[in-house]
Amino acid sequence: MAEIRKEAFGKTADGRDIELYTLRNTKGTEVKVTTFGARLVSWRVMTPAGKFVDVLLGYADGATYEQDTDTAMGGIVGRHANRIAGGKAVIGGETYQLELNTGSHQQNHIHGGFKGFHMKLWQAEPTYTGLKLTYHSPDGEGGYPGNMDVTVLYSLSNDNELSIQYDAVADHDTICNLTNHSYFNLDGFASGSVLDQKIQIFADKYTWADAESLPDGRILPVEGTPMDLRQPVRIGEHIDDDFDELQMGQGYDHNWVINDVPAQVELKPGQGYDPTCPIDYLAGGLKKAAYAEAAQTGITLTCYTTQPGIQFYTGNFLDGSFPGKGGTTFPRRSGFALETQYFPNALANPNFPQPILKKGEHWRAQTVYVLEHKD
Question: How many other β-carbons are positioned within 10 Å of the β-carbon of residue 105?
């Protein structure tokens, strides 16, 4: 188990204490998690040159996270990650109106509403394998039906594997599609643009999306398009190409359909699995979703997940509005996100995997990010 320590991280606007937990492994790698939004605040790892680098964009205190209502920086988002057209959710034949908090005319729903899970104060409990965070989402929150109890377990192994395990259960049929919305910069959070870093996504297809970033059900081949990231390519290589998807999204902000090939990866017992939590499977269902690398630091990032899709977002709308750690700011394209998920707008597209959680059943998922050095 990684060593875990707790410290104060400020207060919410209504005076509640925000905590910060640091997970540290035997290599000196540190991951910091705050109870505000169950957010990843930093991930500090040693480079091949023997220098520690923090590869996550983040803020210096909990209050700044609460003030930033747009980026979901580092947070666990839900009940539904990404967009739902018109905020319309039909569950068991009944229609629910979710909060409308995104779109050119605020006509769609994203990330659980105005105050999704990333804007909530979670309860934290260190376990012998990691940090367990829990949140109770009441019936009607964000427009969603049913009371939902959510558990997220962050585990850091001595091999620099950061595992995120999710478990959710509700007392009414509802929607569940949780993800982590961290922004990575493998040259360090204060190093500026990520356009010279490389990305690879293990997907032959992607979901077409309109100018509101809403898929219409089409699943298209990446072959012959700038969406073909099956081999490592510089992020900036095609990001501004004259291609409808990139022009509408002002860069990459799209969902790829992860190839359904089990990854040859196995987390060791006690590193990515906690039998004290209600998560009763190992990592056998993980698929290799994405890979990134930075030449400057030699750091590589590999993402594995049990989820069917991944949103690759290049921080096109970051604008440096809030001061980050170390007094830096985060301008456009200074970080990229790899959000594992069900496909966006799945409720309007029955050919997509559906994010419906039945009453009394457990929704479970796992995503693992691994930091290594380029050979």
Answer: 8
